[in-house]
Amino acid sequence: MKHIKTVLVAGMVAGLFPATLFAQDSTTINTGSAASNEKVQVAFRKEAKRDVLGAVSSVNVAELLKQNYTTYSLEGMDALAAGFNGNSMWGMGGYLLLIDGIPREATNVLPTEIEQISFLKGAGAVALYGSRAAKGVVAITTKRGQQGKIQVNVRANAGVHTPKAFPKYLGSAEYMTLYNEALRNDGLPAMYNDEAIYNHASGKNPYRYPSVDYYSSDYLKKTYNRYDATAEISGGNETARYYTNIGYQTTGSLLNFGQGKNNGSERLNMRGNIDVNINKYISANVDAAAMFNTGKGVNTDYWNSAANLRPNRFSPLLPLSMIEADDSLAQLLVKNSNNIIGGQYMLGGTQLDQTNPIGTIYAGGTNRAISRQFLFNTGVKADLGNMLKGLTFHTAFAVDYATSYNLSFNPTYATYRPIWNSYSGTDRFSLTSNSGDKFGVDGNNGIQSVSNSWYRQTIAANGHFDYANSFAGQHHVSAMLLVNGYQQSESGVYQRTTNANLGLQAGYNFNHKYYVDFSGALVNSGRLPEANRTAFNPTVSLGWRLSNEKFLANSPVVNDLKLTASAGILHTDLDIPEYYLYQGYYTGAGQWYGWKDGTGIQATESRRGDNPDMVFPKREEVNLGVEGSFLNNLLRVQGSFFVNKMTGMVTQASALYPAYFTTGFPSSSFIPWVNSNDDKRVGFDFAANLNKQLGAVNWSLGVMGTYYNTTATKRAEIPMESYRFRQGKAVDGIWGLENLGFFKDQEDINKSAQQTFGTVKPGDIKYKDQNGDNIIDIKDEVFLGKGGWYGAPLTLGVNLSAKWKNLSFFALGTGRFGQFALKNSSYFWVDNQDKYSVVVRDRWTPETAATATYPRLTTANSDNNFRSSDFWMYSRNAFDLSKVQVSYDLSGQLKSKKIVRELGVYVSGFNLLTLSPERDVLQLNVGSAPQTRLFNLGAKATF
Fold it and tell me: Whole-prediction pTM value?
């Protein structure tokens, strides 16, 4: 807080200086055509789109929403904004998201509230935001009221979610058969006899011989619904303008039994943005928003349990009709039970499943996850033109508060293990007096519990003097002197997240033809030693509009063409994971040492060494850009090429220090965190839009793309085989063993390199000995492919729209290429007593050795098979048809527009289709709710 106060005071004093810089007469800037008047949000100001430098993409969400209804603020932006791949800008990760200039979350705003989203990618575009913005900024600008009559926009939607895919697991009989096979593979006797397997397969008594499918219609619905409604009210006059948004949405759940039927979520959001002209020279804004979210759920993770509970373990429900007539104990238990399901069933269980997801959903209580968020910001703009023409002062202040907690009722419940008997082919069960037949007790104290309380507070403020003027109608000058800071406090986190910086911007363009811009910031970070906590971030951007040169001025092909170049250095603390890493750290919670007399002493151990010379990591970048329109604005293009380096990233590099700097026992280390690692990214992005009317149809086609390649240019590594070096390989690399198929037999094992990851048998995976030492260990791991931790290396987006009379069509697709992953979930890696999925059907056996695609089954730990290797790697290349919407404008059919001025309806589909060789894997969620398609019907009206 001390540093923020210092920066704020210094900035306000420094902000007085621009008044003396340009004390000259000037004329009004020539704004040119209507298209050139379009404004784009950049750092702390809006700028004419034609004059923007520094690798910036923008999306007009308010206009897009007319043909593309969306449910999330950043939905589809990877197909609409060049350089943004959904996770990062240019593959850097960790971008700063701002809503109306304040650090917030994308879920804090709904699409109907948004006017524009700007994606600030280049170093010059983000420099003024300081250290925390060094990897890009997503700037969301909300709608504001306009002078004119009151306008009311109403929108309502009703949608149906349908699951794309569920995991496919084996039924009880097949599972038991294959588990016996796994036991035989391990030299152990079978667990299940043929009669038991037959009985489970027959289905004649699913309560005695269960085969529970947790993804069946017994527990899940085929679809669930989603509804939302929004009302926007705006208007005002020359003195005051207002915009309000009130919305409500509710979403259901797939669970179809017990308390799970009531699962779902609700959200109520309210926003009010007010702009007031206090007098001729001073204006102000006051914005406030509130979100109330409530999630209704049960006290169990059903999806995780569904992916792990074996189908034959127990029957969740026991029918009362099958209790032996003379079992008085069972009758008494039924009479005294609080949990007779539907008047027909008791809850089943075992010693291992005393509580289970089915029982908990029926009788284990409910919870509500409650979230409240309040956003407030205000600002003042002062026109200081009487002091210096073109000089203004802007200041903004914001306070946000978010809190969440859980309210739950946690009753206990009993489950029962039946003792089955058969009488003339009729199955009946009893409950003996043995306490082992009943687990737990039915009880409900009626007390509501509060848990998982959390809060976060954000305080942000900035102030800046802006100067914008023109001389002789050709020389356009701009400047800004800025102080900016924010601080976030979070429950359970001792150290606040802080960003504070001073900024300076100076720009000049001659007749919108030649441009130069300097943007820089003095940044400060408490994550560094006191002597190294400040640094300066300089950036320079240049622009040249070739279309204004004589040799292109009358070109029938080129309407507009601008080249840009930018370079800069941004110091950042984003890659310093914690505070005080520069300080050595000792702990008294070390190893206990005892003596013969029974006394002892607890050791003081070192966890890291000091590094008073730690400095900021840096983003060093050069980027080139081009944008233009051609053939009478038929085609518009924009693109950027970039080379950036992240240097001096901090790490605790053991390779740089002698081995005795760290010990395993006691667990101690004197190795400090140092500026060591460097990364490099090289890539490009592009956007092309084609607009053409063919007959009576207006067509628009947009194609976006982002490609980047990463290289770990510097790593502190112990000398080893060259193929093992991370340096020189992709930053997002997947490393593992290279497989050679399965061991055929014992002779094959004997002739091969020794595997060190446990005992191997025929049918286990054989690996390549990379270094020829006849031993398979971690020294044989090699680079396998790019994991795409910050998004796929190549992202492509396509959007198509067509309008014919009152009917319009919109489609959006996204392709992702060059990214790999491992099939390493519990669905694929199966050993011990894990649940078996259908993938094990292709397991290795002596009979299927030639065609098997899965290792042999085992009841032991399969460390050899289930580890990172190319055997489990798959390509994530895919193209998704993300959206299709058809809209019809009914406005022309209104008899009178005095009340309803506009009216329209639309149908839309979300996440409709995935084209990929690995579609089944990409659409599969294991241990969580399934991916869904959404089919939506909507209507909108303007009053």
Answer: 0.91
